Amino acid sequence: MPSMAQDRINKRPSEVEEFAGAIIGRAEKHGILVPQNRYLYRRIQEIESCYK
């Protein structure tokens, strides 16, 4: 099972910032659209916001 799935099951913060956050930041710097990464980034943040 991927580590991010394990994080979700155990309600731990994932590495979303290191993965999707980094890609989004670099894409913005170069003017590249990354709608799938933006969607997944927002969705994972929504899921993790319910952990607290």
List keywords for this structure.
52 residues, mainly alpha, elongated, N-(1-d-carboxylethyl)-l-norvaline Dehydrogenase, domain 2
Task: Walk me through this protein's architecture.
The chain is built from 3 helices and no strands. The chain has about 50 residues and is mostly helical. The chain has one domain (about 5-50): N-(1-d-carboxylethyl)-l-norvaline Dehydrogenase, domain 2, CATH 1.10.1040. The two termini are about 25 Å apart.
Largest sheet: none
Number of domains: 1
Separation of the first and last Cα atoms: 24 Å
Can you tell me the overall shape?
Answer: elongated
CATH T-level fold name: N-(1-d-carboxylethyl)-l-norvaline Dehydrogenase, domain 2
Give the mean pLDDT: 93
Return residue spans where pLDDT drops below 50 for at least 5 consecutive residues.
Answer: none
In short:
The protein is 71% helix and 0% strand.
Topology readout:
Elements: H1 3-9, H2 16-30, H3 35-49
Helix pairs in contact: 2-3
